[in-house]
Every structure is written in structure tokens, then in C-alpha cells.
Structure prediction request, 167 residues.
Amino acid sequence: MDWISRHPNATEGFKREACFTLDYSLARVLHCVDQLDDEGLWHRPTDAMNAVGNILLHLCGNLRQWIVCGCSDLPDDRDRPAEFARRDPLPKPELVEKLTTTVEQAKATIMQQTEADLLRPRFIQIAEVTGLGAIFHSTAHLEGHAQEIIYITRLQLGEAYRFKDTY
Prediction:
């Protein structure tokens, strides 16, 4: 008998925690994005480094590939290199809408998962993972990039950076 079966509320608890993590990370990202103008969102310290705008596109691609498509068996048409290659800026409202919508889609997909869905193996991007693995991967990925965006924002704004009141 597996752990989830021995804990009848574990599936629902896991789904709530995963959605909380997505919301928490999104709030941290948006706190930074709100402080940057379009130029700041697309600033690259060097050509080899990503702009915050590219990271936002990358987060949308990852969440769609690993959770929205990966956990619902929708076709995946992600073009990962394009997320980093983009140089023509999207306006801030469009980026915010894209990321917010993608996070909401990911949360809806997570909440639709059954215990069997969470345990079923599937192939996503580079490996065979369960639904649990896909959700763990993508939520941790978002949180990691949220911290990166905070750092980039602080570097750009210096003392003008406004810390978030609560986390």
C-alpha cells in the first residue's frame, strides 16, 4: 500500500499545497514586475544573460509543458529556445496576463488530478515522471526563478527596491 492510499486526505492536501506554492511564487514575481518598467523587464546585463521578460516567458512554457499539458495529456507545442531568444519586448500587461493565466491553468489542472493521475507515469520533456513528479518539478522551478527575479530586480533598482511586506 502506498503512502497516499494510507492517508486519505493526502491527495487533496498535496493539491492545495501545490496551488499555494504557485500562488506564493507568483505573488513574489509580480511584486518585482510591478516595480520594473518595460525597459527594466527586458534589460539584459550581457547578451548571454536573460531578461526578466524572458524568464517570465520561460516560466509560462515550463508550467504549460509540465503541468497543464503534462498532467492532462494535452498536446505540448512548447518552443523552449524561443523563450530565451526573444529580443522584441512584450508589454508588461501582456506578460503579467500570460503568466497569471498560465498559473491559473496549472492550478486548475492540479485540482482536477485524481490519486491515480498523480501516480501515473508519463513522459515530459526529458524523462518519465509521475504527475506528482511533474508538479513538484514545475512548482520548484517557479520558486527558483522567483528568487532569481527578486535578485535581478534588486540589482536593477538598488536602494529603490521595495521589499514585499509579507511572504
Summary: The longest strand covers residues 121-124. DSSP finds eight helices and two strands in the chain.
